[in-house]
Write a structure and sequence with these properties.
One of its GO terms (biological process) is carbohydrate metabolic process. InterPro entries: 6-hairpin_glycosidase_sf, 6hp_glycosidase-like_sf, Gal_mutarotase_sf_dom, GH65_N, Glyco_hydro_65_C, Glyco_hydro_65_M, Glyco_hydro_65_N, Malt_Pase/Glycosyl_Hdrlase. The radius of gyration is 27 Å and the shape is globular. With about 775 residues, the protein is α+β, with helices and mostly antiparallel strands. It contains 18 helices and 34 strands. The chain has a nine-stranded antiparallel sheet. A five-stranded antiparallel sheet has the order 8-7-13-18-17, with no helix packed on it. It has a five-stranded antiparallel sheet with strand order 20-29-30-31-34. Bound molecules: beta-D-glucopyranose (BGC). Beta-D-glucopyranose binds next to loops.
Amino acid sequence: MITQTSYPVEPWALRERGLHLDVLPQSESVFALSNGHVGWRGNLDEGEPHGLPGTYLNGVHEIHPLPYAEAGYGYPESGQTVINVTNGKIIRLLVDDEPFDLRYGRLRSHERVLDLRAGTLTRTCEWTSPAGTTVRVRSTRLVSFTQRAVAAVAYEVEAVGGPARIVVQSELVANEQLPGHDGDPRAAVVLEAPLEAEEHFAKSGRLRLVHRTRRSGLRVGAAAGHVVEGPDPTTTESEAAGDLARLTVTSTLAAGERLRVEKVVSHGWSGTRSLPAMSDQVDAALAAAGSVGWAGLAAEQRAYLDAFWARSDVEVEGDEQIQQAVRFALFHVLQAGARAEQRAIPAKGLTGSGYDGHAFWDTEMFVLPLLTYTSPDAVAEALRWRQNTLPAARARAVQLGLRGAAFPWRTIEGAEGSAYWPAGTAAFHVNADIADAVVRYTAATGDEGFERDTGVELLVETARLWRSLGHHDQHGAFHLDGMTGPDEYSAVADDNTYTNLMARANLLAAADAVERHPRRAAELAVGEEETAAWRDAAEAMHIPYNHDLGVHEQHAGFTRYQRWDFAATRPDQYPLMLHFPYFDLYRKQVIKQADLVLAMYTCGPHFDAEHKARNFAYYEPLTVRDSSLSACCQAVVAAETGHLGLAHDYLREAALMDLEDLEHNTRDGLHIASLAGTWMALVAGFGGLRHHGESIGFAPCLPERLGGLAFTLQLRGRRLRVEIGRGTATYTLLTGEPLTIHHHGVALVLDADKPHTLDIPPRRPRPAPDQPPHRRPDRA
Ligand code: BGC
């Protein structure tokens, strides 16, 4: 576990004092830089030691066969896995005759700082070689938000206390050796050297490598340019071959003298472009970046982030650790989505190879809500990516004997990549989640062009899927049988409430959108009969309810199941899926992650306040939070049902998921959904933001331990600031036309720059619900 002392609490940075080799893989994830297109893990400049070397290009993957012990119809035949592309981070250093390797010699000081306003990772260290030569090294790197193909490093070495003969090798390296994969040995075979060399070039400090993946047939290019400053004589030499291109800089530094190397790297990839076109592409990106140089890139980065923070910051009073964590979270979610541009936003962003680099429903239900109110353009792009993958989703629906589009449970390029159908294929709710993201984005932006060109098609094809998946029974009720909801400890169950409510909203949204866009509807061959069938299904949607208990059922029959024997389950047997068969988990009342509880947030108007409270009290003691997606959802509903202290505890769990490595797998990459969930727990939890149709409402409330909370949102081209204090909330429209919002159900018209302060009604106290033994969240 990363101990908290490694990251001192401060508002705008994440700092590591000293070098903690035991948690190097975790810190490589935490210090990863990305813009959604290019991702550089926080590997040390010199490449070694490392936990997992990682350079990722969104969409670059390799395919591998998925053999099954027992084959079945419709199983995906191949899987996709993200690959480590050409590494442009590496800058090796030789001091006198010895490699600068922190495992040897004496490390006098070492510090890494992720600066959330500058968008840079800076490292400073002082090291004495085994032979006694001391140097100071300072490097700053960035992955550019403004020039999406570009990353850069400024690297400086200084002789301390005496002269030093210095050799710096700045490299591009392909097919780096990766540590053994502890999971899937089939994928590891492909990954061993996934890139075939096509071209190498080196001249006067300009480097280029172009490779191709073996099976997926993608061309991957990287180029680097350098500016070198050092005392005379400083010499340089460039060379390249196969998987390596290198600039070697040699200099002799007197005490206090410095050698500085500025390296700009450009990355590119394509499934269609020719070798010369790819070489030109990366060279051109390099030329554009070179024209502004390192200083220009750093200035652009800061300006981009200044604008981001002005429209997105969240201020937390009374819990400094959460203040730091939510900014860290916002920064990483921005990094995951900012420039993804019609590519997926993977569950780990571009911070690691966990989940094989796949995107899940995490994108639409966790990441896109945050981006909708802070960086809406990124949301439109993410949903256009879904639209671009419609051919694969339609083909999958046909294969499954269904209509419309069946979007994949997990994927990189659009095809279903889940080999486990009960939690993959059957998790059809991903389709309604995509529809929900379309509706939310359109409501929050009023982007009619998007709705017409992208939204309608996504809504129509998913509505078609639901209509063909379900059936009306003899009494007319509409059922969706054999679905897997968000809780993966229940599978292939009938009438999952979350799925049914989300599908209902999907069907109605599709019918409404078609009425607004008749021409588009005609192009998609939607007739009145079809929309009438959607509305019928929606209105007749069955929502299972246990009248004896007075609670909604997670799925039909769930509350009749035997309860999991929590008392007999030891703390070390969590997560349960690693210690018990799915067979047993599926037939008991035990919940991996918020499911019915999530439905109460996303489909809130379906439940009255009394049911929300009763359902929450019923499901809390069954929910073990074996998924990182759970705590933030529970935080939101805990806040709404008046359990403010518990909500704070859940907020902290979501917020510290990676900073404290709570799930012990931060090494594989960050939990981007849980990071986004930190924002959700604050803004939808304590801010009480709910956005259903045209109605935007807040129901603020603060837990005892927080003194204040403030956040800024983008809404229909306006900027709204919400400030919550102990007894009042203030709403200020910072820019834009008047806006109507609701405060605890009371409508309020806001005019620009006229703050409105309103009292916060007291919450009704309720008895605290229990959690399963050993699964209580840590108290704040
Ligand atoms: C969760 C899924 C989630 C996936 C990726 C799983 O453990 O159960 O809901 O989509 O992780 O984050």
